[in-house]
Amino acid sequence: MQIYITKIKPLHGTNYSEVAPEARMIYKRISSKTKRRPYVRSKYFDNEKVFLDYFWSHIMSKNPRDRTRRLRQYPCAIDLIIHTHLDPISKQHPEKYSEILHRFKGRNGNGEIFFVQIKEVKKNDEKSFMSVSPEMD
Predict the structure, then answer these.
(1) For 4-135, where are the E strands, in sequence order?
(2) What is residue 136's three-state secondary structure?
(3) What pTM did the predictor assign?
(4) What is the DSSP letter of 62?
(5) For the chain, first and last CA: distance in Å?
């Protein structure tokens, strides 16, 4: 698997209350560009929309420590989604056969590895940013 290298550094902070406002500000900047569902266009998917709203409901299901770890990588993940041309690992969702999961690998400005997962619904080709996670040691 090839690694997308971004110059964007992860957000600063050690707990959720420090990291969440910065991540929400980035999301708000993107969502203010549209009246409907917030999205970014991805080079890998031929400039198709990747919706961002699913990520926030997914992140709230995690414990606060895990939320912080994932939110720190949020700006790096957005940059990867927008700019990468590299092929991800794609596989069918193990529980929902109507979905494909695309997993991209990236390296942020601090040299840390992270993964971005995008869900694609086969029926209507809708893509949603699902998750970002730093590599575990």
Answers:
(1) 4-5, 39-42, 48-51, 89-92, 99-107, 113-121, 126-134
(2) coil
(3) 0.91
(4) S
(5) 18
